[in-house]
What does this fold into?
Amino acid sequence: MSAARKLLPWVALLVVVTGALVVGAAGRPDSSAAGRTRRIASELRCPVCQGLSVADSPSSTARAMVADIRRRVDAGESDAAIRQAYVNTYSEQILLQPKGSGFGALVWALPVAVLVLSVGGLGLAFRRWRRRPVLSPTEADRRLVEQALADAHEET
Amino acid sequence: MRAALGSSGLVMGAFAAVLGVLTTALGLARRDRRIMNTGRQFTYVVLAGALIAAGAMEWALLSHDFSLAYVVKNHARATPLLYTVAALWGALEGSILLWALVLAGYLAFTARKFRSRAGDPLVAWALLVGLVVATFFFALMLGPANPFKVVSGVVPQDGLGPNPLLQNHPLMAIHPPMLYLGYVGFTIPFCFAVAALVTGRVGEGWLLETRRATLVAWAFLTAGIVLGAWWSYEVLGWGGYWAWDPVENASFIPWLTATAFLHSVVVQERRGMLRVWNLSLILATFCLTILGTFLTRSGVVNSVHAFTESDIGAWLLVFLGAAAVTGLGLIAWRGDRLRTPGRIDSPISREGAFLANNLLFAGFAFVVLLGTVFPLLAEALRGQQLSVGEPYFDRMTVPIGIALLFFMAVAPALPWRAASGDVLRRRLAGPAWAGALTMAGVAAAGARGVAQVAAFGLAAFALAGIVRVFAVGLAARRRADGGGWFHALAATVAGNRRLYGGLVVHAGVVVVAVALAASMGYTTKREAHLATGERTALAGYHFTYLGAVDHDTGQKRTVKARILVERGGRRLGVYAPALSIFPNSAQAIGTPSVRTGPLRDVYLTLVSSPDETGRITLGVQVGPLVVWLWIGGGIMLLGTAVAAWPGRRAGRRAQRVEVSTRPSPPPAEERLEEAPV
It folds into this structure.
């Protein structure tokens, strides 16, 4: 079998997977008033709860906020304007995910930095492993083994 | 009387722990086996002290001894028996007592297990470290978190009762002990890791000693987390099971590092590599359990679990710092012995997959940790108030989860060292096509969301891979032995329980992943104001409000709304979501009513009880496959039990030899595959 022949089934597999994912991604975000309300509410923190979003919280405060968001959506305000109105009232603490600017940006940037560093580090390690011949024990290694054997002997 | 008994238990435990440390240290210094053995036996006295203290507390709770401040705060005469017993871990001081008890139990068990090796410095050092940790927790209880504090002035006639959320569901009685058995269990591998570093015996010996301890702790932590999610779902009434609450995260982060360890440890056993990494993971897991306790118990974060403010925070931070510095210092000191000459030949190999898996688990742990402590950091460093919640965690962790699912599907099929194209094709093509066709199928059937489609497909890929390994093993066994399928299955699993147990755990993860993807993606919910006789509909279900019922037990006053649930004209039953008022809390506590089904759960909440016009607000939610989260958790535990059950090692070895002398043994490369547990 030629190399191309061998690759063919994998290419077909990739095509099927990509196709399925594209179809899966085709669902547009729900732009109905209810959908927008729910999305905005899920990004705001319920001020009287412990870590729940306004959308999830069963508290009366959160339900009043959902009603208010719905009123604003129906009045034609944009998503960003509604969010900003809540930030103005409650400070940035109302947002369940920090903005991508200022100190809050670190919470987004640090994981990316760690990812890049660790993948880079792993790549370097593989390169070093590939270059380095399989080692034979050095004099220091032999001393270590002798020492360990002597230790073990002593213990028993 | 009970206070005196409990306090004497604490003093006894503390003294025994200190004496045990000193004696063991003396024994180690003099290399005297008998002294070390005496030090070992102090662990039994520590356990006795902890048992006396915990027993005294339970006795005080059961006999309504309101002279104890803890009993007044966490118990009332009307509290039912189950929640009375569970009040031991319902608040700060009691939960530290439970911690000390569990730790003492693990230490005594370890001391007994290694009784024939009392003179081995590795064992002596491990017990010494464990006794130091025990000393710390007993000191906490004699200092800032004394559970046996006596009330000043007149002894009250009745107590306040437990936090309403903690006396609302029987799961409360088992979730915390499970979690603690897991959390505290990681102390044992930590002790052995430190002992290995101190004695310089950093080879694979300490790993083998602690392998089962790590697995047992991991299994308990898994059970604790799943039960916690279930409790959250059944009790909190917001319809979800995981809110990325700081304390949920605090239990999840060490689970992630421990899971990474369970995988990377196989590489060390097999190839002698990744020693520093494995030691670091064990160290990190232990430190993260202490950090979790700090987050939960010091009041620095707001959460359902965070008990009242207390000054044990500073103690825990100092202890955490000491543990981390000691561990890192020891690793640096032993750096020369930890270097290994091995190398990973190819990224496309079992080792390579384990590395990727570890990178992902570590990254996962880092993201969750960062998101959890970030608001604290922002406030401490910048005076800025920020929130980090579900949208952040979902966005960051879903891609990691999907990548993990991919490696879980691929890794068990990869051979060690390097994979040839032919091996890959033979082992992976079938499962990969099962996954791809599943993706195409669910997308064609209308499933939307890239994460969902990918998760379903990868789940099928992983499951098909698991079935393939079982099938290969079974076929080989039947060729060798003949006999029925059931017999062959039992013999196959018994022949390599780590491999097959690990694969069963993976199957549980597959089930959990599918349930997570479905319930996160396709849950619908709504609220309706209903007068008696009115109805509302959601996702093909109809809900009719039949009327409300009041109920007063003394423990609580409850309003139940009776809701008739129908689907397609068929009556499914009457469900009764409720709101309860507890005497010690102004806020009404909702109790959802859940109709659990194999395909979907119907989740009803009473948002507000009948108003002046007799209307209620009813919350309804239809969520697919939720029950499979708990079933998947159960499968994971089953697999862990298969892998970790104390077995007949000698018998297993004999069986292997027997198999290999049969005329047609199974292909070697397939037979000896090792599982990641």
